[in-house]
Amino acid sequence: xxxxxxxxxxxxxxxxxxxxxxxxxxxxxxxxxxxxxxxxxxxxxxxxxxxxxxxxxxxxxxxxxxxxxxxxxxxxxxxxxxxxxxxxxxxxxxxxxxxxxxxxxxxxxxxxxxxxxxxxxxxxxxxxxxxxxxxxxxxxxxxxxxxxxxxxxx
Length: 154
Known about the structure:
Elements: E1 2-7, H1 10-22, E2 27-33, E3 44-50, H2 55-72, E4 86-93, H3 98-113, H4 116-135, E5 137-144, E6 150-151
Antiparallel strand pairs: 1-3, 2-3, 4-5, 5-6
Helix pairs in contact: 3-4
């Protein structure tokens, strides 16, 4: 048995395994817990292994799989239901974050105790924060057409 590909994503590993099995190639997934080098103790790496006789055919099938999915890499998918039928929405917030109004007086107070150049820069940032609060902002999100879940692209 030889390792064909290794991935940290179990969904991708399952898709590759199913793609190989559709081509009549026996494939298995092995899970490796690599806790020595990973930052989280439950981080895993999934290896897809095939028999020695099927390695050449599996590499050709894997190349076809990657070419087919290269088109779909740019499409986001819903993390709730896995659906790829999503639309991009722009959410307009009328006001900015409250943090803008919290940091503005702090920066103005700091600008009083700094030399003229740095004080002017701090005051400019403080007024910028106040203006940004009243301008608002836009957020690009994606909405799943199946379950109506709103998410940002990962």
